[in-house]
Amino acid sequence: MLKQKLKDNELTIGSWITIPDPIIAEIMSKHFDWLVIDMEHSAITLDKAQDIIRILSLTGCPALVRVSDNNPISIKGVMDSGASGVIVPMVNNREDALKALKAVHYPPQGTRGVGLARAQDYGFGFDAYRHWQMKKPIVIAQIEHITGVNNLPSILKTDIDGIIVGPYDLSGSIGIPGEFNCPAFQELTNKIIKISKEYKKPLGYHVIQPDHSLVNEKVKQGYTFIAFSIDTLFFGTKVKDETNKIGII
């Protein structure tokens, strides 16, 4: 179970879904420990997300959803669709983390409204789901702003299951978007690694480029919750590499 692996700080590697087609998710599920359905920076709507979640539940691959924002309505929608948990963008302080946690859980733990949708087996499995949501949903805080880094200790003191670094927005927050080799960015990520190890919380990173050597680097640095690239980049990179070889002997 992914929740337990996170608790044990066991290495897991997942990937990012941005193409709104369950077939893509089904293919990728055979090669990753978990998959993230991106509803922040893609055209995936709630109905498409539910279709992908349904496929992933059949393959046994945990389905996390990166919601568009830290909004109880957005979180409720994907949880009611049967998501294993959520990745919440721009968590910058303790209050943001607590807001996300409350949005995932029913009262008295949280503030989530109760519905009878796919997650609750359309009303026929409500009791089982009620017990499940008490302890098993996954909440990952995305750290992608310098404010979140500065407030990281208070974020990690909450009951979130871990954090994941969003490198593009994090670098952008200090005025150097995409410049991951810049000393200022590396200083930030080193700070994140140090603090996360102190609090013994799972540390994640989204490796954007489909290059396995970059994943290996992150493993050596102590990251244990690693998102490896994006469906579009896996597909597009292979197409580009192979078509460039046509006619070359």
Question: What would your notes on this structure say?
Answer:
This protein is of the alpha/beta class and 249 residues long. The protein has helices spanning 2-7, 22-28, 46-59, 72-80, 94-104, 126-135, 146-150, 152-156, 167-172, 183-199, 212-221, 231-243, and strands at residues 12-17, 34-38, 63-66, 85-88, 138-143, 162-165, 203-207, 225-230. It has one domain: Alpha-Beta Barrel (TIM Barrel), CATH 3.20.20.60. Helices cover 45% and strands 16% of the residues. Strands 1-2-3-4-5-6-7-8 form an eight-stranded parallel beta barrel, surrounded by seven helices. Helix 2 (22-28) packs parallel to helix 3 (46-59) and helix 4 (72-80) packs parallel to helix 5.
Overall pLDDT, averaged? 97
Order of helices and strands: HEHEHEHEHHEHHEHHEHEH
Main sheet summary: 8 strands, parallel, barrel
Unreliable spans are none
Count of alpha/pi helices: 12
How widely separated are the two ends? 48 Å
Q: How many beta-strand runs?
A: 8
Key features of this structure:
single chain; 249 residues; alpha/beta; TIM Barrel; eight-stranded parallel barrel; 12 helices; 8 strands; globular
